[in-house]
Amino acid sequence: MTFLRRAFVLLAGLLAAATAAAEPPAIHVRQVGVGADCWVLLHPFGASGRFWERRATLLAAEHHVRIYAPDLPSHGRSRIVPHFSYAAATAAVAQALRRDCPRPSLVIGASSGGIVAMKLGARTRTRVAAIGVGWSFSPANLASMAADAAHPSPALIGWLTTFADQGAPQLGALEHAYADLAAAGTAPFLTAREARALGGRLLVLHGDADDFFLTGSAEALAARVPGSRLARFPSAGHLEPLAPANAPRAWRLIGAFAATGTVPAE
């Protein structure tokens, strides 16, 4: 091999390494706490693992566990993907946690993160606390997401911008992802096999004033997963079981469920 050819091969290798180093990981994961057991926290659509920043530290200290808070695909510092799906997001998160937290003792998820949490819990046979979730999208949900994809509102752009660590390309991908989700239609989020695998392992926290996943959808989910628990929060909106007025009760229920697999009578 001539000197010039060796130099070219070396340069090509360096450029490839630099490109790989610059590319975001498939799934970026934040971690806090120490302990033998691990929990996973999954954020709502459009947010990132930063959504849980303060709560993750409190949970790690209270329950003596390691907390992992991944950014879903196209979110936060994770790699931007052409299309978003709950199944692909679940597989990507499971792969990212394969070494450090292959079987968490609890998965907590909110809204879209709750759907991924349920699918991950079915895969790993672990307990799941899901906030603001339902059995499937309704026609109203689909119309709303299609509208968001076509003409995102200033409020939606503000929400996405808060967590968009990768700037304009990420905002574009997230806006497009609403169309990806709408294309899923009204099929159940869980397969029959996943629903059976979650049997006795699911706690659903539902706000009775949720204007996205309505009460009927949350109840349908609880009815179709055998042995699941449904905790209702009067007058609470979509993610408001986590709001200051409701958070003490929500985290008390989640802590009891993590420890015993059940929730105390209230």
Report on this structure.
The protein is an alpha/beta fold and 266 residues long. The protein has a single domain, classed as Rossmann fold, CATH 3.40.50. The protein is 46% helix and 13% strand. It has 10 helices and 7 strands. It has helices spanning 3-22, 53-63, 86-96, 112-124, 139-150, 154-163, 168-182, 192-197, 215-224, 247-260; strands spanning 29-32, 38-42, 66-70, 106-110, 127-131, 202-207, 229-233. Strands 1-3-2-4-5-6-7 form a 7-stranded mixed sheet, sandwiched between helices. The protein is globular. The relative contact order is 0.12.
Q: How are the strands of the biggest sheet laid out side by side?
A: 1-3-2-4-5-6-7
Global shape: globular
Mean pLDDT: 92
Number of contiguous helices: 10
Radius of gyration: 20 Å
**How many β-strands, per DSSP?**
7
- Would you identify the CATH architecture? 3-Layer(aba) Sandwich
Low-pLDDT runs of 5+ residues are: 3-21
Q: Which structural class do the helices and strands define?
A: alpha/beta
User: Terminal Cα separation, in Å?
Assistant: 77 Å
Strand content: 5-15%
Q: What's the level 1 CATH class? A: Alpha Beta
Name of the CATH homologous superfamily: Alpha/Beta hydrolase fold, catalytic domain
